[in-house]
Structures are given as structure tokens and as C-alpha cells.
Structure to design on (428 residues):
């Protein structure tokens, strides 16, 4: 009965396969994403969840025609990113069934992150899954899969030491600033963006007693909230005031969701002319917020998300000992999900058996109603209907329970043979 069950597939790219300049082309805003998903659902795709973080873009989908659906996804990526497929398909990875399931569990548990054990990824995956549920792009299979991923991530986080002293992209950005400026208390910083990443960065900067802090954001209220929650004195400015501010700061860290350069090369060049010392820029946004050509300016040191990987590699060594246990958990949870997934194969058979018995019951009732039970009023006949329904339900209880047990072991040779026999018996 395998043909009744849609297949799971995924297509994606990450920091391991694609540079940031490629990944940023696929960081769709929500308006573009709505159109993307609507187009996907017009074809063979039944369920879909899109994930985009600073390090990856991944699409999980469900279809009865998984190979055709994969090509449709790649075609849509080509169409919406404005890149010809030969320019990005070589950096895509494609995974199906067990491999796709295991990969998502690894992603949510931060084992596929630039920094193994970082805590932000599961929250980001939850946010994208929440968007998918609100826009009704998920269904039975992906709902079950993503909830399994969140449970696995929690197990890995709480039952291993992999996330102890958490290291994240935000932490690494601050670590890099510390390596360049030995005493952060003497430096001034401008944070552009007041999202979750900016909040994490500010927490780390506060821990290391950063000097003067300026927060720039479209929403002044959000910026004020972040500074207040962390109990950090900060100057709050609008995005329009950035150009006047940058000549007076030593460190600029940008992490907005803008789809254009917040800082252009000309803006940085003018600011540097007014300074007598270097400026350190960290662009951890995808798409990038800072024009990469600004890095060519004298006394400007610009790092993007991919540049942080070298620091991440250094921190990786201390976490590798814990990954063995984490992978064991992931493998076990992958098998648990696949158990459930394979059991879906038996659902159509159960439905067909119930339908077959219900047809027989209704046909016989109609015959008796016309011939031998004509004297009964509707109320009395309804009692007989209820009785036959109860008899059928109890009669089918044991065989259906047996079928469900077969479904949980549907990969075994014996289960497959018994299922096939039942299909032949009921002519399904």
C-alpha cells in the first residue's frame, strides 16, 4: 500500500555548501514566500515548510511524486531567486525519506550548525514552522515531523553537555571583537537591528563591559525594550541617523532583516575620513546589510557570516565528545518517527475494510426495512441501526487492532506478506 503514502523530501543549501552571496539570494521575505508556496501547491506538493537562517535555506515538502516535486521546487527557486539553476543547483543538497527526517532532527538539535550546540537554531526553526502552520502549508506528516524535531532538540539540549556554555554566531561576533580590541570597555559599538540576534549580541557585550552602546532600529520601541531588559544604558537612534553616528563608533554589528545594503561603501568611506583610527564591521545578516566592497577601504575590517566559521571551528573541538550521544538520540528518534510514518501504510486498508463492512450493513438494513421490518416506526428502526453499528464496531475491533500492530512493523517481511494477504482478501 506504499503508493497511498506521500513521500518526504527536502532541498537546501547551507554554509557547508554555498557562500553567503549565494544563500542570500534565497532569503525570501514573507510576501515573496507566500507567492512561492502558493505556486508550489498548484503542482504536486501537498505540504511544505521553508526555513531560512543566516547559515541555511531549506525546503521540506511532501508529495506523492517526490522526484517531480523536487524538480518543481528547484524550478521555483530559479524563478523566485532570479538565478539560473546551473548557478545554484551544484550547491544544493537533496534528501529523501529517512535522510530528510534525520537531517531535520540534526538541524533542530544544532548538530548541523556552524557552531555545534548553539541555542538559536531551534527557535528559528520553530518560527518558520509557525509561519507555515499559520499559512496552512503543513499537514499530518510535516506537523508530526517538526514536533518530533523539537522534542529531539530538547533531549539533546537537556541530556547532553553539547550546549553547555552556549556558543552562537552572536557570541562568536563578540569574541572576534575581543580579539581585535583587547579591552572592550574602551570601545563604542553601534548595533543595527533590534531582533533576537541583536539582543544576544548586546547580552554578550554587556557581559564583557562594553563601553558606549548605540542601538539603531526601525522600531525605537523594540530597541528601547531590548536595552531595558538587559539593563544596559544605550543611545537609541533611527536608521536615518546611522550615517551621522558611524564616524564615532569603533565596532558596528549589523543584523537586520533588510533586503538591501543598510551601509554602502560610500557611507563607510565618508565615515572613515572623519576618523583617526580603524573601524571594525561585522555583518551577520543574510541577505547582507553591509556592502562587501566596504572591506576594500583602508582601515576598515569587515567580516560576514562566513568569516566567522574559522572561530567556530576552534570552538568545535570541545563539543565533539558529546556529539556521539547526541547522534544516538537522533538515530533513535528518527526510527521512532519512521515507525509512525510506515504505520500510515495500513490506514487506507483499515479505511477500506470499514467502508466494505459499512456498505454491507447499510444494504442489509435497507432490504430488511423494505421486507420484514416495515411495521417498525422510525424510532424503533433507529435502535436496530444503532445495534448493528455496535455489532460491526466490536466485530472489527480485534482485526483492526491487529492491522495497526502490523502497521508499526510494516518494514518486516512478515508484516508486508500479511498486509498483502489482507488486501487480496478484501479485494483492495
Amino acid at each position: 500500500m506504499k503508493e497511498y503514502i506521500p513521500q518526504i523530501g527536502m532541498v537546501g543549501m547551507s554554509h557547508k555548501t554555498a557562500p553567503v552571496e549565494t544563500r542570500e539570494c534565497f532569503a525570501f521575505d514573507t510576501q515573496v514566500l507566500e507567492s512561492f508556496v502558493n505556486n508550489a501547491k498548484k503542482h504536486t506538493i501537498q505540504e511544505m515548510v521553508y526555513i531560512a537562517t543566516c547559515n541555511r535555506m531549506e525546503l521540506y515538502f511532501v508529495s506523492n511524486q517526490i522526484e517531480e516535486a523536487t524538480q518543481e521546487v528547484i524550478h521555483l527557486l530559479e524563478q523566485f531567486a532570479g538565478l539560473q539553476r546551473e548557478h545554484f543547483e551544484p550547491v544544493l543538497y537533496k534528501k529523501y525519506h529517512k535522510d530528510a527526517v534525520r537531517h531535520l532532527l540534526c538541524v533542530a538539535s544544532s548538530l548541523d550548525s556552524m557552531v555545534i550546540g548553539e541555542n538559536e537554531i531551534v527557535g528559528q526553526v520553530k518560527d518558520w514552522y509557525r509561519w507555515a502552520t499559520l499559512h496552512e502549508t503543513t499537514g499530518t506528516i510535516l506537523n508530526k515531523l517538526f514536533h518530533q524535531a523539537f522534542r529531539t532538540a530538547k533531549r539533546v539540549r537537556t541530556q547532553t553537555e553539547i550546549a553547555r556554555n552556549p556558543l552562537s554566531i552572536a557570541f562568536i561576533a563578540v569574541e572576534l571583537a575581543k580579539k581585535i580590541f583587547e579591552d572592550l570597555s574602551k570601545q563604542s559599538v553601534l548595533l543595527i537591528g533590534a531582533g533576537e540576534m541583536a539582543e544576544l549580541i548586546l547580552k554578550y557585550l554587556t557581559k564583557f563591559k562594553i563601553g558606549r552602546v548605540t542601538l539603531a532600529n526601525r522600531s525605537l520601541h523594540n530597541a528601547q525594550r531590548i536595552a531595558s531588559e538587559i539593563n544596559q544604558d544605550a543611545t537609541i537612534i533611527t536608521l536615518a541617523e546611522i550615517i551621522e553616528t558611524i564616524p564615532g563608533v569603533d565596532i558596528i554589528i549589523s543584523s537586520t532583516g533588510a533586503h538591501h545594503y543598510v551601509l554602502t561603501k560610500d557611507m563607510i568611506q565618508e565615515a572613515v575620513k572623519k576618523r583617526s583610527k580603524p573601524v571594525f564591521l561585522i555583518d551577520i545578516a543574510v541577505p547582507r546589510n553591509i556592502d562587501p566592497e566596504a572591506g576594500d577601504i583602508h582601515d576598515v575590517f569587515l567580516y560576514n557570516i562566513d568569516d566567522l566559521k574559522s572561530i567556530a571551528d576552534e570552538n568545535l573541538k570541545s563539543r565533539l565528545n558529546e556529539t556521539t550521544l547526541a547522534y544516538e538520540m537522533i538515530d533513535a528518534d528518527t526510527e521512532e518517527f519512521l515507525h509512525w510514518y510506515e504505520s500510515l501504510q495500513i490506514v487506507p486498508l483499515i479505511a477500506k475494510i470499514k467502508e466494505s463492512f459499512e456498505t454491507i450493513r447499510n444494504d442489509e438494513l435497507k432490504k430488511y426495512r423494505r421486507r420484514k421490518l416495515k411495521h417498525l416506526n422510525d424510532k424503533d428502526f433507529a435502535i436496530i441501526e444503532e445495534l448493528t453499528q455496535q455489532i460491526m464496531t466490536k466485530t472489527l475491533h480485534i482485526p483492526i487492532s491487529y492491522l495497526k500492530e502490523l502497521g508499526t512493523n510494516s518494514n518486516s517481511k512478515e508484516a508486508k506478506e500479511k498486509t498483502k494477504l489482507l488486501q487480496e482478501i478484501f479485494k483492495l
